[in-house]
Amino acid sequence: MLHPSSGFRGTRAGVTEGTGSSLENGDPGKSVPRMRVTYTCASGHLTQPVFCELPEDQIPAEWECRRCGGAATRDGLPPEAHSTTEEGYKTHLEYVKERRSGEDAEAVLAGALERLRARGVLPDELLGDT
To answer: DSSP of 80-126, one letter per residue?
Structure first.
């Protein structure tokens, strides 16, 4: 899993304060405080990205392993072991199922079929339900 902000949180070697738009108020040539964070994937690979000095709650819990591409965590446990309140990607059908019950779906389908039959688009014999 590629972390959505992975390209924006890391720093490159030689970054100094005052060279970026967010660090305009610093002394030119002064080094930006940095920290190295260690992540371990399920295969045991270590990944150590460098971040600007960040509060603990802003450091990502997961990072993409540079060797195998798997999810790496700070404590070495698989991502499934962590309780997350974050919901993953949902399909359109999953959102619809949250809003409608099975009975609602049957009613909507019956109404749509009736409208199609009334317009002559869908013959009654096609589905064999008459």
So the answer is: GGS---------HHHHHHHH--HHHHHHHHHHHHHHHHHHTSS-HHH
pLDDT in tens, 13-68: 555 555 554 445 556 667 788 889 999 988 888 889 998 888 888 888 888 888 88
Q: Which residues contact 51 (CB under 8 A, 6 or more apart)?
A: 9, 10, 11, 34, 35, 36, 37, 59
> pLDDT per residue over 90-125, tens digit each?
888 888 888 888 899 899 999 998 998 888 887 766
Task: Write phi, then psi, for 46 (nearest 5 degrees).
Answer: -100, 135
Strand pairing category for 39-41 and 71-73: antiparallel
Segments making up each domain of the chain, as ranges: 6-81, 92-123
> 6-81 — its CATH code?
2.20.28
